[in-house]
Amino acid sequence: MGDDSEWSKLPIDQKCEHKLWKARLNGYEEALKLFEKIDDEKSPEWSKYLGLIKKFVTDSNAVAQLKGLEAALAYVENAHVAGKTTGEVVSGVVNKVFNQPKAKAKELGIDICFMFIEIEKAEIVQEELLKGLDNKNPKIIVACIETLRKALSEFGSKIISLKPIIKVLPKLFESREKAVRDEAKLLAVEIYRWIRDALRPPLQNINSLQLKELEEEWVKLPSSAPKQSRFLRSQQEMKAKFEQQQAAGGDADGGGDDGDEAVPQVDAYELLEAVEILSKLPKDFYDKIEAKKWQERKEALEAVEVLVKNPKLEAGDYADLVKALKKVVGKDTNVMLVALAAKCLAGLAAGLRKKFGQYAGHVVPTILEKFKEKKPQVVQALQEAIDAVFLTTTLQNLSEDILAVMDNKNPTIKQQTSLFIARSFRHCTPSTLSKALLKPFCAALLKHINDSAPEVRDAAFEALGTALKVAGEKAVNPFLTDVDKLKLDRIKECAEKIELAGGTRGGAGADRKENKPVAGKAPVLSGAAGDKDTKENAAKSGSMKKAPAAKTGGPSKKGKQSAAGGAGTAGTKGKKGADLKEIFEPELSIEMCEEKASAVLPAACLQQLDSGNWKERLACMEEFQKAVELMDKTEMPCQALVRMLAKKPGWKETNFQVMQIKLRIVALVAQKGTFSKTSALIVLDGLVDKIGDVKCGNNAKEALTAIAEACQLPWTAEQVMSLAFSQKNPKNQSETLNWLSNAIREFGFAGLNVKAFISNVKTALAATNPAVRTSAITLLGVMYLYVGGPLRMFFEDEKPALLSQIDAEFEKMQGQTPPAPTRGSSRNTVGSGDDGEEGEELEDAGNDVVDLLPRTDISDKITSELVSKIGDKNWKIRKEGLDEVASIINEAKFIQPNIGELTSALKNRLNDSNKILVLQTLTILQQLATAMGPNIKQHVKNLGIPIITILGDSKNNVRAASLATVNAWTEQTGMKEWLEGEDLSEELKKENPFLRQELLGWLADKLPTLRSVPSDLILCVPHLYCCLEDRNGDVRKKAQDALPFFMMHLGFEKMAKSTGKLKPSSKDQVLVMLEKAKANMPAKPVPPNKTSSRGIGSAPAKSQAASGSSEDFSSSTAETKQDAKKPKAGGSAPKTKGIQGKKVPSKSNLKEDDDRSGPVFIFVPNGKEQRMKDEKGLKVLKWNFTTPRDEYIEQLKTQMSSCVAKWLQDEMFHADFQHHNKALSVMVEHLESEKEGVVSCLDLILKWLTLRFFDTNTSVLMKTLEYLKLLFTMLNQEEYHLTENEATSFIPYLILKVGEPKDVVRRDVRTILNRMCLVYPASKMFTFIMEGTKSKNSKQRTECLEELGCLVESYGMNVCQPTPGKALKEIAVHIGDRDNTVRNAALNTIVTVYNVHGDQVFKLIGNLSEKDMSMLEERIKRSAKRPNAALARQVEEKPQRIQSANANANILRKGPAEDMSSKLNQARNMSAHSETSHAVPREFQLDLDEIENDNGTMRCEMPALVQHKLDDIFEPVLIPEPKIRAVSPHFDDMHSNTASTINFVISQVASGDINTSIQALAQIDEVLRQEDKAEAMSGHIDQFLIATFMQLRLIYNTHMADEKLDKDEIVKLYSCIIGNMISLFQIECLAREASAGVLKDLMHGLITLMLDSRVEDLEEGQQVIRSVNLLVVKVLEKSDQTNILSALLVLLQDSLLATASSPKFSELVMKCLWRMVRLLPETINTINLDRIMLDIHIFMKVFPKEKLKQCKSEFPIRTLKTLIHTLCKLKGPKILDHLTMIDNKNESELEAHLCRVMKHSLDQTGSKTDKGTEKGASRIDEKSPKAKVNDILAEIFKKIGSKENTKEGLAELYEYKKKYSDADIEPFLKNSSQFFQNYVERGLRLIEMEREGKGRIPSSTGVSPQMEVSCVPTSTNTVSSSIGNSNGEEVGPSVYLERLKILRQRCGLDNAKQEDRAPLTSQLSKPSHPTVASSTDMLHSKLSQLRESREQYQHMDLDSNQTHSSGIGTTSSSAASNIDDLKKRLERIKSNRK
Description:
Layout: H1 2-8, H2 12-15, H3 21-37, H4 45-48, H5 53-57, H6 62-78, H7 86-97, H8 103-118, H9 122-132, H10 138-155, H11 162-173, H12 178-195, H13 208-220, H14 236-249, H15 255-262, H16 268-271, H17 285-288, H18 294-308, H19 319-331, H20 335-352, H21 357-370, H22 376-390, H23 395-406, H24 411-426, H25 435-448, H26 454-471, H27 473-476, H28 485-497, H29 508-511, H30 516-526, H31 547-551, H32 558-564, H33 568-583, H34 590-600, H35 603-607, H36 614-630, H37 638-646, H38 656-672, H39 677-690, H40 697-711, H41 713-726, H42 730-747, H43 754-765, H44 770-787, H45 800-813, H46 825-828, H47 835-852, H48 864-870, H49 875-892, H50 902-909, H51 915-932, H52 940-949, H53 956-973, H54 976-979, H55 983-989, H56 993-1006, H57 1021-1028, H58 1033-1057, H59 1064-1080, H60 1098-1107, H61 1110-1123, H62 1126-1129, H63 1137-1140, H64 1149-1156, H65 1167-1176, H66 1190-1201, H67 1206-1212, H68 1217-1231, H69 1235-1240, H70 1242-1253, H71 1258-1277, H72 1284-1288, H73 1291-1297, H74 1303-1316, H75 1322-1332, H76 1338-1355, H77 1364-1373, H78 1380-1397, H79 1400-1405, H80 1410-1425, ...
Helix pairs in contact: 3-6, 6-8, 7-8, 7-9, 9-10, 10-12, 11-12, 12-13, 18-20, 19-20, 19-21, 20-22, 21-22, 21-23, 22-24, 22-30, 23-24, 23-25, 24-26, 25-26, 26-28, 32-33, 34-37, 36-38, 37-38, 37-39, 38-40, 39-40, 39-41, 40-41, 40-42, 41-42, 41-43, 42-44, 43-44, 44-45, 47-64, 48-49, 49-51, 50-52, ...
């Protein structure tokens, strides 16, 4: 009893695992009681037993096992988590319970299976039971069949899938065991109950006696439909209904419905395996069918007849066969053969069903013509054929052929055609038999009812009667108006007699005149063929019961798909099928093999196989090889061939030449044939024997690789390894290991049995031969690549010397990524080899290895003495106890999770008063985590959370140790267990600052790496908000850092909702922080997809590098870091992981990858057209609503179900917006790879996106707009045109969003509208946008009006719809709008039209109110006077329309600001050309200076421009409306084929084949070297550069690593690329076309190449690197200076952020920047400083000064300072005017830094502030620059000029004059009217009197703020703001005059800012006129210049386009000379053009 007492104290779960059976029995009994007692199905108690339930059912002791089964049953019934154990438990039941002698055990086993089915796990249960049918023990097979039968009987055929069961039935009937056959018979009877006759075809080939017995049993079955009697948990309603019926008296009628539903589920055709017959046709079939002897023809047809008897045929190319049969039917003189050929056609049509439809049209006319034959059997055969053919197509398709025959003179043909029409009508429905179809048929049949032949008349009556019955009188009567009453009655009589497509067929004709065979034909239609008719019968629910089967979605396509490798699902099924076939190929006898081989090999070859003469053997082998090479896969008898090779001398062959060919043949057979594992086993022994052979070794390895590809590597490798190590030849062993190392790299690691290899590797490591040891260590290195660190654990017992070698090998592999599998996948996954899955498997491999480790049970060592020691009062004894525990764990290395009392003992020590012991306990807990592995999960709650409590310790070292321990634990367990429940929130609740900051820091570190979190995380949020307001600054900081990561998982809405319980003051603060956090919220880590298939390698890093978004970089490092841990983080139950497979309910990686392989958008032929028809025919709701109602959403969901992957659809229609974001991310990822699918579903995608416009969540909206931008770019590249249906269901909703309050949203919508004009006519867009101007939302009206202006500007007047007059009238209405911005927008739009159309605008507009007209005239005048400002504004508003090819054109482009939010910078850059190709006139407006080369900066010569296009400048009205996809303006006079040729050549540059790439580069080089041709490249530069750096990336990642490649080839490719680029960057006008994003990637590629050590090692490597150096210099000098500077700044930022990037890389980027800084003095005027300042701002935002100082090198901070100082030095105070593109200047230190630099320079230079203004400046405050003084005065005069602020302005002017007594205000007064001057002087006098009269009054409030104005001048917008009175009151003309004068002065003062407005003025920014003596004089000169130029403009009769350009000309000389100069230039251009 001593034993008993020992185990009786153990907890239940430990008893259940005890080695004593009594203990286990007792454990099971207690567990049973416990399971029945627990009420909560989600109780954590259940999880403890997850890993034990399998042991319950597989107990070795029969008595204990019975009790274990009872307990397991209770567990499955009650536990929520039981589903996770399905696979392993059912497998245990099958293998260990069903073979038990006790009936009770079997019953319990079946009950457990049923309970799993009840909890929704039917598929897994069925899978395991079907596996059981392959068991060798007949007892198990019988029990499995019985279980399946009973399950079907109780759960019904809806839940138990019948197809896989029916597949194995015939095999069961062949069993030797009578018990198995009998049970199979019972199962067949049960299946028959559910599906009736659908079971007959699959069983047609079983033993006739068995079939007869079955038939007898089937007859006895009751005819009533069976009903489900046991229900799933989700079917409780049905269960209640069923029980009510039972109580009410058995079989109530109501139950019939449920039963009926089950019956039509299975179509017999679907249960059949498709048979491939084309290859089985006799080889001489086509010769024989043409033979002269009819017997030969008959033989050929009989062969076909046998083949087509197969009820289901595999799809293929049957055209030739059909053609041959058709010829026999039509032309053969032997009627017997005609009938035979017709039977063959009928069989083909019946076997192929819809797939035969394509041939129907060819066959039907011939058959109808042949009805002239009188012989009954021929007629019957032809009828059967034509009826079968009809079912494969539709009447519509055949109508022409049928009607053509109706006029034939032969009465039999007419009769049979009418009868065929009658039969066809029966298979139609009122909807398919439309009036349009009936009309021609009725007309033809009405002729026949008057025919002289009675049989023709009768047949016609029957056909018309059938039509009447099917379509109804309403449809048919209109065609029968001329028929007399007698005939009409006859037709109606026929109609009544007819029964539709069901049982017997009646009809007048049938009874009397019709031939016998025709009556006998009926069953063919209604029986086997009847159920093939899918669509036609669907509506007839009455008699035709098979119809619903057709509706379930034609699975008939499956065969086709898997054959073509089409659908992912079909592919995987195909894979399984292939495996089964390979495994079960029977072993053939040698005689059989000889027979098969003789059929395919030459006779001489077989005779010489074992010849004694080696030469004969060699000749024989060569013959053999030729024969195999020519053999067809389907004809190749692999097993027979390899047996012939193994024939004596076989593998003992002594001649190496013969042996080499022999091995080559094995490889060939394996590659070409269907090579099974049976065949492989015949040859493997011989191959392994030869693998070490010097001469034949390589051939043997190739053969092994081919076999591995055919039979899969895991199986092959296992066989090869065991064979190699069962022999003693060390050479063979070492070469086998080498082969395996290489094979793993080629095939990937998926599915390999690590444990089996490890034992062999250990044997190899112990070998005496050093070569074997070396090979073993190399193999370990390769395995380490895939498995990682855990692999080392297996070899820790090896000798230190060996271990150090292994470590050195592992060290080599450190940081490398496993290569992509290059073999295996294509063959075995039938087209669904998704990289993503493989990556997943690789990662899991590491985890599986951990599971394989032998673990020690240390529970017996944790004695009560030890536990009491650990709890002793004396700290020294406690320490001893802990030391003992540490040594126990160290000795055991890997332990089981059962550690008894140790848990509580260690928990107590965590609170020990002695900190040394706390630290020691933490160290032990770290050890424990490593030793226990993932199983430590179960201790998280009781041991893990106390560790977190220690994070609040006051001692720093204790907190650090605690954090290290927590991290060690989470590495093993993942985060899920920690975040579940309230424990973590309770810890956060404690008001301990240390605990809070450490815990929040830890969460901020961990949360970004998780893909999903438990919902319990929300419990932490209230405490997080408390921390945001904590007294401790560090806690607040950590809380703010963690905030975005909480939001990333919980979403903004939930977080905002949680603020409800806060105090109002706190709530406001927290909400502000939430808004900030929302902006910084990172995206969730994506599930490992194709990019991450390489593990943690380069691919993910690359994809992130391309994104260019600042947030992404912050999260990319985290993402890549945690990739390695993903399997652990997302894992499920500790031990069951491998077996559960994809059915684990948690979101495990496996599930996601299984479900998510394959395309997300499925291409459905004609799907879109059908949807459009449905919408037109009002079969579905039109997509038109104010807000989306549920029925629209449901409709869209239904339409999407057929063409969108199920999992994606679930995300798209999820209630939570985060899932919408996920869906959008997936759609972005798949956009490029699935273009065809996207286009086919485009209407649905756009509709779904319109639903997103109604979402309130901004992140979804932004993501939607981001996706739309990429989508329309892609559609434009694909040259796709939106259909009307797509446009009308999308554009109106997009236009709603243009009125969004957020600026960024409006900007994006405008971008999308512009891109849409490339895929949808602008004129049609105009109508939609015009509709948008009627909105109540003023912002929407404004934006729509502006967009209309842009459209007119880009596309001319023709764009105005319906006519320009009507459109303009509608626009003009808005001039009187109550909203100022709308008024302005309307005025600007009409001004734009005026600029294009001239004075005719006034005619088109018609009558306007006086007020509106005056505003318009005023605006038109102003626009004529200020072209630059107007242009600048347009440029700023519409960045997309500007030609980015021009160096200055994108000065005001807002690109970078948008790009920051973009996920795919690159895509946007690529689309730059397509976006901007319309602005033809604009290009010339901007580029006049460059055409003339005035400033000498451009080297492009005149002829390089496309001159004739200048007409656009002079005759704008005649511009034809550009086509939607106008070619880039550079190409105007070239044919589109030039462009397409260039596109094609460029696409080849990025080719993976080196030669292709070199050829393409050579062609481009030829173009670039010829000046006259080089311009053809314009518009393709970005595209070419992208292709080039993709090629550079390919060389770097692939070619350089490929040892097989000749490195000279690579050098050649490098030199071609570099040569090409140098040529390109010498042509300045082309070089300037490169956009910033592309330049960034190019520089990245070039610098990476310069740093590639592998290139240096090449022979000509140094030369390559020197060339790259030269190229980089060219790129820096010749590119657009703004773009290259911007690109370098972004690249530097990226390189500093990327942890993987080398410091050398950043250093080279900085060197490039220094070079650019040196170039700045020459290039400063060509640079868009606004954009550069934005880039610097972003850089400083990402890298504040403190962060830069932390860099290892001081170069980055020095580089940045140098750049800023140089810019300040060159631009002076004006640099502060260039911060216009920065939204929030406070986000970075840029502005402050600039001010500091300015201040410093001013301090040094004293009062010398600006050119020639010493006097003016010195009088004012010394530090204040002149611009500030002017601004202050301008501001004051502005106030004086405005009605409301005039007094305040005068007061400020008084104060100002008082403060600066010598200030000169003369310039401000001089040009104003006398009235205004008097007014100001009078005002000043009044104030003076008032103040002196009243004594000292404190100075006016307005002054001090004015004095504090920072260095930043007022923004450009204030300058150009409208002078219209904002109140809309009438104001006298004098006031307007006054204001105009003030504005003129302002313009004069603001001249410095004009360079912001018009791109080219930046080149003239340095005024070259002589310096003026004082600021007043300078103002005078500027104003006089301005006035002169204005007067000149008014007299000039130039088009607005010229006006724009002439506005640029205010240089040093007077404006007049400038304008003369301009005229001359234009004349010159004109003459050149002529």
